[in-house]
Amino acid sequence: AADKIRLIPQDFFAELCEQIIQHLNHKIPGINTAELCQRIQTSGVDINIGDLAKVANTLSFLFSTAARNNLSTEELVTSLGSGVSTLPKHAVQVIRHVWNEQGKAIAVSEDATTTATVGQFVDMKWKLGVAMSSDTCRSLKYPYVTVTLTVADPSGQITDKSFEMTIPQFKNFVRQFKEMASVLETV
Fold this sequence. Notes:
By secondary structure, this protein is of the alpha+beta class. The protein has seven helices and three strands. The protein folds into two domains: 1-105, no CATH class; 120-185, Nuclear Transport Factor 2, Chain: A (Roll). Strands 1-2-3 form a three-stranded antiparallel sheet. Residues 120-187 form the COMM domain. InterPro entries: COMM, COMMD4/6/7/8.
């Protein structure tokens, strides 16, 4: 991961660290690596989303481990310097600053609650469509609903999951959501 961190400009690296800290503090549901990767690529840096996700996972592990062990800023920086592959100076400076500013908040939240092992629902979008025709069928006129769920996995990576349903399937889907809502109102 150290080789990939060298590629990331300091301002983007700082933004990534900030998002990870916010995620670990349960202030945001996850890190949108796809959007951040696109912005980094637009700035002229050749990095792919898989490499950026690895860097995010490494930093998330670093910060959460430091929080669990209640490391001070100096202890964290010292442990970073003793690694096999050393991080670039700008990365260590950013990690030092972010941990110094917000590290204690993670330590408190990590002690208070255990990290969830399932993803977190972030958003849902849907749209109604009609298939008019295809190569094999001249006249379909078949309505369908496309649903896109935005989910943050336990590491904080945000992904979209899309699927299509027939109108009866969508009605059943909505009915189940209404049942969940009524049960939640009783809690």
